[in-house]
Amino acid sequence: MALILNLIVQGAQMALVLLLAPLLTGVVRLMKARLMGRRGPSPLQPYRDLLRLTRKEAVLAENASWLFRTAPYLVFAMIWVAASLIPTFATGLIFSWSADLIAIVALLGSARFFLALAGMDIGTSFGGIGSSREMMIASLAEPAMLMIVFTVSLVAGSTQLSTVAAFMQGPDVGLRVSLALALIGLVIVAIAENARIPVDNPATHLELTMVHEAMVLEYSGRHLAMIEAASALKLLLYVSLIACLFAPFGMATAAAGPVAYAAGALAYGGKLLGGGLLLALFETSIAKMRVFRVPEFLGVALMLGLLGLVLLFVTRSL
Amino acid sequence: MTRGLAFDVSHLLAGGMVLASFMLLYQDRVFSLLRVFALHALVLALSVAWQANVQAAPHLYLTAVIALAFKAIVIPVALHRIVVRLGIHRQLETVVGVGPTIMFGMGLVALSIAVILPVLPDADPLAREDLAFALSVVLLGLLMMISRRNAVSQVIGFMSLENGLVLAATGAKGMPLVVEISVAFSILIAFIVIGIFLFRIRERFDTVDVGAMDSFRGERR
Amino acid sequence: MLIVAALAILCLILLGLCGPLHGRLGHATSIAYAGAAGATAVLLLMGLAALIGAAGAAPVTASLSVGLPWLGAHFRIDALSAYFMVVVNLGGLAASIYGIGYGEHERQPGRVLAFFPAFLAGMNMVLLADDAFAFLLSWEFMSLSSWLLVVANHRQPDNLHAGYVYLVMASMGTFALLLGFGLLAGPEGGYAFETIRAAAPGSGRAAIVLALALLGAGSKAGIVPLHAWLPLAHPAAPSHVSALMSGVMTKVAVYGFVRIAFDLLGPPDWWWGLVVLVLGGITAVMGVLYALMQHDLKRLLAYHTVENIGIIYIGLGLALAFQAQGHAGVAALGLAAGLLHVLNHSLFKSLLFFGSGAVLVATGERDMERLGGLIHRMPATALYFLVGCAAISALPPLNGFVSEWMTFQAILLSPQLPDWTLRFAVPAVGAILALSAALAATCFVKAFGIVFLGRPRSLEAAAAREADRWQLGSMGALAALCVVVGVVPGLFVDLLGPVTQLLVGDRLGPQLGLPWLTLVPVAEARSSYNGLLLLLFIAFSTVAPALLIHRYATRATRRGALWDCGTPTSDPAAQYSAGSFAQPIRRVFGAMVFHAREHVDMPQPGETRAARFHVDLRDLAWDFFYDPVARGVSAVAGRMNHLQFLTIRRYLTLVFGALVLLLMVLAVWH
Predict the structure, then answer these.
(1) For chain B, how many structural domains are there in total?
(2) How much of chain A, in percent, has pLDDT values that exceed 90?
């Protein structure tokens, strides 16, 4: 009985992230529009877009291979699995131990690997430029992310996200320099990985500036829908990760009962809203940077992570 | 481990100083450099004020106010006006790229930790780690001065170095007010001198790239 | 047991006779490779049996009265050599099966057939040797037989140069090992490993031996800056031999280092781990950066071997550091991570070299800029190559990720180390490891994307044909093993238990009994990883949405011309090339790491010549290490030249002087 209940909670988590992801994207778009003085689309627009895309016929280039057709599903699956492994409204879910933070980062790496390959499958110059730049950004963002993961894990004494979140809720954390450094680094990585301004512009179709969009230029119909859903999930994943590590209040513990779960879900919704607002504010107040300024930007994240890690290695009190 | 709030906040602020020093190294435009320097001084003022609160030393509040008024407001505004009036080139030309500079800066932070922490194993951990951070800020200021060609950034590097000294001084309990005020005034005078120099260099060479002076002296760089 | 091993090795050496008999004997190629496959299979099973039985039993030893008269030849199988026997013979078996198909396409099969089984035999003999003499003899046998395979296609001028550099480096390496064993044996000449183990050297002598082992075994494994021969020699050999050299022979070199550093040298000093760690970190990041810049598929793979050797050495360095501090449990974790990566790398690197061999056979091309679109012509090869690429890029749920994950776990336990230098070095090495893992993914997106995806960039690539069933079978088996090791890593970590028990005196807890086959290296609250569940989750979340969409939304698909933002060009040359793919990375790291210079030659308006773009990359190891050494040697040689033109009396004076000098040294010594 307990097993079934646990499975239900785990399933609820998977469904929750999937259902909320387009909403978060929609909310961010709406807020950005309002900040820029436009009316903006309804926050539900991403759902409509996804439904419309799934019903459309998929147009494939003549030389598209099986990899091109399977990659969207694989990318979606990997990001979905990663997103559902991050505690959102409760810690200690039944399968949370199957992959730790390092594995979650690597899962995102897998998704990126296949997306970049799909970008090269048709053999166009845009696909190539997108893949090449995406991998360049990733090859700096991923180590930065791992450094941040290491910092957090050393503070909490575990790479297991549930344990870390539980520790962060506890009284032993305090304000730490290393965690502050990690937070700044994590925000930089999140911006870069989600193709947001100033690294990339999610709304652009201007050839010289696009990175992520250039990779998926050849996709249409259901395949594009999967990729759009995956990028919405990825945004949700990073916001939940930041919330779970640095604002863990309100999360229910393992087997806490439905009331606590509901409260946790409410708190989670509030955190997502706050994260979306901050992201929109940040994006409207900053200009996009040149592609070759990006490595320096990410290099800073890498250095911050490393600095935090070194501080923890030399003295446990920082 | 029980950790007091006083301990945490002062660490956080000292760490913020190091972070602001790194942000100084990262900038490539003069105006953003000035803004970050104002932030640097603001963090310093906060840190000093917090120390005043923790150590119950009201004279430190005065230091904090001096830091806030002069370094966070007067000097950046003045430098801003100088840059505008002189039409100084607004890009910061680097001798080495930003990436290597920051990497080197990391090494400097590691070095200062490695120097300070083992030397004072018995000291109050608060003072000890603050001292390590202060030394890092000083070294990063020096790094800033040697790795940028623009004279404005050298001034800023020097000022941030001085901020590091103040941080070190306030961390150690019982530094007399006189010393601080004299340090603050000497810095002010140094600022005026350097500002006048900026005008002079500009008049003579029509640039504030200090490389131009080297070539004038016949040195190769 | 050793008798069976000896018979199998003898069998391998005899199979070399197929080489000269080729032409007279009908199916010489098939016989040789099938025989090699059989012999390696026997050795593989023996290794497995010895490893499983190694837990409680004493190691099997034997000695023959050949070799040095007062020494004889000692052989022994303990857990360490059994584990490496598994790795070596697994790679050997795959290469032999692959060779059955690949050998048919060889231009001069006799040159390869004669030495391929001997090379396998040499590697096995190194693992079995239990005294310095037998070890060095087998080591040299292995080096020479592989050298003969490198120069098998000696008509290509590059290959001869590669062979020359390899020979010089291999001799230097063996020489360093010879000196190292000499120091270990001491003045009494106790060359048997048993004697060496009993008499642990003092810390000064041990330090020199460690340096010599790093020089000797490290140059064979390819640690930076001793890697220079590796990307020349490995691609020059036929592809299945490249796979053996890159995937397996470098592992024998790792075995040599582990045997000396962990087994023979006694308890380590604290700084040993630091040296090995830093070398490993430099090797990892430099290897992958070099690999990214290569446009020759096989050379890219060879450079990438350098990276993986770095990762293995990082694991070994952590183990040494922890062992020196007495943390046996964590040392076992670091060692297990390094040794598991040994197995993993031998699997996927062999697989990738087999794939490049299949491409080479199908198109005659190694230059990536002339390949492309092979996924349509060679679907099975493409699938297996993709698995290899994903595994080597450390993507879950495949095997490369498991060993890197374990290394990261060991790094995260390092704040326990009391030493300050290590406390700064370990996080830096962790950052380097993370960086090189991410760069590896970039490197293999490039390799797979340029070679197999896109449109064919040459007529040969457009007319490629799928590899034969032997090649495919061998690649398929290796790809399956990559998945298996990734999904049930606990099985293989358990196999490593006796090895770590032998070397550092502790082992990771038993993994197989844990629920859902989870991998828990230290404690569940600390970290756990479950490849099986991850695989199931990914499979479910891939298939379920696909089925749902196909069932309830639409499955309509239309084929059309490619879109390319509305400006399609039909010329395949307009695709992104290997060089352009690597350009952002080159801009980020190039100036610092390679002293990259870009030369653009743009014709003036009206000129008819083509514009040219040329990138100049330098290998700093050559600039700062080899060239000065080579110049020094040549200068000394020039000075010594006049020694050839002396009178007899002067020669006698020299001989006499040398004799007196040696006698004086002897007098002072005592």
Answers:
(1) 1
(2) 54
